[in-house]
C-alpha cells in the first residue's frame, strides 16, 4: 500500500514548457477493444510526440503503463493527465498503480464533481478556467504544483490542457475510420 512517506514524485519547478502527457481512451465501435492515445505537449504550444496502443482487457492500467514506458518521450514527460471518467464504464485505469508503474505524477481532471478517488496519497483541488470548474485529483504532486501544471499546459482560450484536448481529437478521428 502506498503512503505519503514512501511515495513522493516531485516536479521541482513548473516551467512554461513543462512536458505533459495527455491520455485519452475510447472503446472501439466494433469488438471489445479500446484505443488509447497519448500526446506529449511542451507547455501549451508545441507537440513533442504521439503514442498509441490498443487494449482488449477491462483493466487498462498495464497497457497504458507499457505504452508510456516504451515511448522515446518517457524520460522527458513530467506529468500524466487523464480525464475522468477515463473510459465508458466497461474498463478502468487504476491511477495509483499507473503513477507507481511509470514513476510519474498523475492528474485526473473532472468537469464538475470530484472523482471518487479516496486515498491518503491523493490531493484534491478545484480549478476555475474559462468559467468552467474542474475538479482535479493529484497523485504524486502537491495541489499548488498541480494547479500550476494545469495552467501552463492549457491555452488561454481553452479549458482543457492541450495535451488532453489534442489526444481526444486524434482519438475521435481514429474512430471515424473504424
Secondary structure topology:
Layout: E1 19-27, E2 34-42, E3 46-55, H1 61-69, E4 79-83, H2 95-102, E5 106-111, E6 122-129, E7 132-139, H3 143-153, H4 162-176
Parallel strand pairs: 1-4, 4-5
Antiparallel strand pairs: 1-2, 2-3, 5-7, 6-7
Helix pairs in contact: 1-2
Q: What does this molecule look like?
A:
- With 178 residues, the protein is α/β, with parallel strands linked by helices.
- The protein has one domain: archaeoglobus fulgidus dsm 4304 fold.
- The chain is built from four helices and seven strands; from the N terminus they run E-E-E-H-E-H-E-E-E-H-H.
- The chain has helices at 61-69, 95-102, 143-153, 162-176; strands at residues 19-27, 34-42, 46-55, 79-83, 106-111, 122-129, 132-139.
- A seven-stranded mixed beta sheet has the order 3-2-1-4-5-7-6, sandwiched between helices.
- Helix 1 (61-69) runs parallel beside helix 2.
- Mean pLDDT is 83; it is low at 1-7.
In the CATH hierarchy, what is the class?
Alpha Beta
Structural class: alpha/beta
Which quaternary structure do these chains form? Answer: single chain
CATH topology (level 3) name: archaeoglobus fulgidus dsm 4304 fold
- The strand order across the widest sheet is 3-2-1-4-5-7-6
Total beta-strand segments: 7
What is the CATH architecture descriptor?
Answer: 2-Layer Sandwich
Euclidean distance between termini CA atoms: 40 Å
Strand content: 25-35%
Overall number of structural domains: 1
Mean pLDDT: 83
Helix and strand run = EEEHEHEEEHH
Low-confidence stretches: 1-7
Name of the CATH homologous superfamily: archaeoglobus fulgidus dsm 4304 superfamily
